[in-house]
Q: What sequence folds into this?
């Protein structure tokens, strides 16, 4: 049974997610009768001025399925979809009422899509395809530009490295020349 479709049929003016919520928790562990699976989980130790531990502040009790054995302590149960929230003023329908409504609608053909709606859907699909193509082209252009900038940055770094090496060589040459000048001045007795 499709609970959502059945509720939409029974309450066509009701708003899903506001007036009711259909939920499916999937496979869920359920404790077997007589099994106490609660374990104490320490949140924080009491402070010096606290005389007793309070649940929710110092500790909390939790079911730790890692400490239990599947098949002995708990079972995995597939509950299926169910009505989790009911906010309508009408009483929540029983399982029998839902099944009766489902039997009435399950073989109904789907409502045909009006021509204007079909045309609008086609336009939206076409626009969506054009948008995806444009985004792809923009992305590829950006990738190419990023690659070009990366090459330019590498070329700039190489040029700066070469310039730095030239500056270092010139500094060495200047230091050698200064040493020669000082040596010549020393020989001539400091006369300029």
A:
């Amino acid at each position: 049974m499709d609970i959502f479709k059945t509720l939409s049929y029974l309450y066509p003016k009701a708003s899903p997610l506001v007036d009711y919520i259909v939920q499916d928790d999937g496979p869920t562990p359920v404790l077997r009768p007589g099994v106490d699976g609660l374990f104490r989980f320490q949140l924080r130790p009491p402070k010096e001025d606290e005389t007793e531990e309070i649940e929710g502040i110092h500790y909390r009790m939790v079911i730790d399925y890692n400490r239990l054995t599947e098949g002995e302590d708990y079972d995995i149960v597939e509950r299926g979809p169910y009505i989790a929230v009911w906010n309508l003023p009408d009483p929540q329908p029983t399982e029998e009422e839902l099944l009766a409504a489902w039997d009435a609608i399950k073989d109904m053909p789907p409502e045909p899509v009006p021509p204007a709606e079909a045309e609008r859907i086609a336009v939206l699909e076409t626009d969506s395809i054009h948008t995806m193509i444009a985004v792809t082209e923009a992305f590829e252009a950006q990738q190419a530009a990023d690659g070009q900038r990366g090459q330019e940055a590498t070329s700039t770094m190489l040029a700066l490295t070469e310039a730095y090496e030239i500056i270092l060589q010139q500094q060495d040459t200047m230091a050698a020349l200064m040493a020669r000048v000082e040596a010549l001045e020393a020989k001539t007795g400091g006369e300029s």
In short: The two ends are 110 Å apart (CA to CA). The chain has a mean pLDDT of 88. Residues 158 and 164 are 10 Å apart (CA to CA). The longest strand covers residues 27-31.
